[in-house]
């Protein structure tokens, strides 16, 4: 019974978050006022979830609300560039999570993906400055994928 109650409470928190976002986008057409209102309410969502969920479960909810872009993109970077250092992996993950925080508050799917696009560009520029040739890395990754398919 407790699990069902937790589920219902979490479902209500998520639904109410979407209602709050709809209200903000409807009631605050001015970008600055809207951004201030989004910021004002951003942290209450995670705080409310923390009453019922662990940190890892909160991560799963956030990923669900943003189409799983963080884990998918992070995994793709690890597969594409196996030589990434631990520091580089952490920076990529942190930027993707930062993008997710903005995407959670975005008005629609297109706006959510735009936030991730912005941060993917940041990651790619940063990796290029660190000496990675992303075209070469991507081609080698595609080749590994094709070889894996052949060996199945």
Describe the structure in your own words.
- By secondary structure, the chain is an all-alpha fold.
- 83% of the residues lie in helices and 0% in strands.
- The protein has seven helices and no strands.
- The protein has helices spanning 2-27, 31-50, 55-65, 69-80, 86-104, 109-129, 134-150.
- α1 (2-27) packs antiparallel against α2 and α4 (69-80) packs antiparallel against α5 (86-104).
- The N and C termini lie far apart (45 Å).
Could you provide a short overview of the structure?
It contains seven helices and no strands. With 152 residues, the chain is mainly alpha-helical.
How much β-strand is present in the residues? Answer: under 5%
Radius of gyration: 19 Å
Q: How many beta strands in the DSSP annotation?
A: 0
Contiguous helical run count: 7
Mean pLDDT reading: 96
Helix content: over 70%
Tell me, what's the shape? globular
> Structural class from helices and strands?
mainly alpha
Main β-sheet: number of strands, strand sense, barrel status?
none
């Amino acid at each position: 019974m407790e699990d069902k109650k937790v589920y219902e409470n979490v479902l209500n928190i998520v639904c109410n978050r979407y209602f709050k976002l709809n209200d903000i986008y409807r009631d605050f057409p001015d970008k600055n006022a809207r951004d201030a209102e989004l910021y004002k309410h951003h942290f209450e969502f995670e705080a409310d979830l923390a009453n019922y969920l662990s940190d890892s479960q909160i991560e799963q909810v956030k990923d669900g609300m943003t189409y799983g872009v963080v884990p998918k993109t992070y995994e793709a970077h690890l597969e594409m560039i196996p030589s990434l250092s631990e520091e580089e992996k952490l920076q990529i993950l942190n930027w993707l999570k930062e993008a997710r925080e903005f995407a959670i508050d975005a008005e629609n799917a297109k706006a959510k993906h735009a936030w991730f696009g912005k941060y993917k560009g940041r990651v790619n520029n940063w990796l290029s400055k660190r000496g990675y040739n992303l075209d070469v890395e991507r081609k080698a990754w595609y080749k590994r994928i094709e070889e894996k398919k052949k060996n199945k």
